[in-house]
Amino acid sequence: MKPQDLSKENYLFERMPVPRAILMNALPTIAGMVVILVYNIADTFFVGQTNDPFQVAAVSLATPVFLLFMATGNLIGIGGTSVISRAFGEKRPEFANHVSSFCFYAAWLVGIVFATVFLFCMPQILQAIGVSGNTIVPTRDYLTYVAPSAPFVIMSVAFGNIVRSAGKAKEAMFGMMLGTGLNIILDPIFILYFDMGVGGAAIATLIGNVVSAYYFWRLVSGGKTSLSISFADFRIRGVILPVISIGIPAALNNVLMSTSIIVLNNVLSSYGDIAVAAMGVATKVSMIAVLLQIGLGVSIQPLLGYNYGAKNAERFRAILQTTIIYALVMGSVLTLASWLGSGYIVNAFIEDQAVYDQGVRFVKALLLTGPVIGIMFVYINTLQAMGAAKESLILSISRQGFIFIPMIFTLNYFFGLSGVVYAQPVADVMAILISIALVYPHLAKYLPESETVSNQPADYESQPAH
Prior knowledge:
By secondary structure, the chain is mostly helical. It has helices at residues 3-14, 18-48, 53-89, 93-120, 122-128, 136-146, 150-162, 169-193, 197-221, 240-268, 273-299, 301-309, 313-340, 342-349, 353-366, 373-385, 389-415, 417-446, 457-462.
């Protein structure tokens, strides 16, 4: 990397006015999340144009498998980002290179293992995710093509996070947009023009992730970042433990999301395939409010991690406080827009009246916590940036794990289908309260209440580097 490039990155992390630094990191990340959002919606949207609720349900049923791949990418990527950003803050670039090289080879190895296992254990996997006689064929078609994408999904997700630790938020955005954009373009071609249905959606997913993984490989191997994927820098000792201690909580969030979707679909299947399809559509719509707030939370982790490593508590606090305000404003605006447009959006997915009626009702239930759920995503990334593995683990398994899954069964027992639908907002409220309880005692040790903080840009312009 050129010295002037490194200087620009140091300015972003150390001295750029806080609101601007957050936006510089957040806007590309959120833009990338918009593309991911469109990608997630695109599969369901174009499959929905077949007007076959069983194929729509198949996409929903297969989602946990794809989430598992993403979980592994987040384990490697978010764990690596936390360790690398703190290493840069501590002025340890050699260790940062050892971590990035380890993450690169780990992503490929685990991805190849996953692809092999899923292809050879397809019957058992189909049974586990709750397919019915109507949905087994389209779900199998989808997973047959999604399984080989595992190495590429894991690589692109991991390095979409890791390159941000080197101040390359725009490049991370482009890598995500490249793969998902291609996927969106190919969806209607394979699904509708070639009449391949959900199988076509899976092929588009495979191609998009291959291209995205290739981009990140070229970016890092070409010396355009301060990171390394050289095998000469590969280390396991001293690297694997700090990466997985932070990465596991991040991955568990996706794993538990995958598990909870399996549980949810199995419970919903007792109310018929229409309920499964309706919840699949409703989940996509509610993602508009949720996924962008996840992007905001993820985007500040390198900023927080760097300043935590540099022991710059004043700047750390200012970044955190400003981001909370952004999260509340963003969450409120996105939730209102999604709520008002829920009928139009659901109707765009599928014209089946039964799916539409239930889908609109499900969307409005899922959006109840939209204005405030961003607080939890900001706090979980704050804990990860500080290396607080235990607290991060507890929070990660809260929302989609030991709160949501029991709520599904409890509320289903007392309130039937309506209870199942409201299990998610109830779990969200409880998870937000847990996040507040976990993060504030931890922050009190690092950010004394007596410390004064200025948000004036001039202060950070003149602040000496640490």
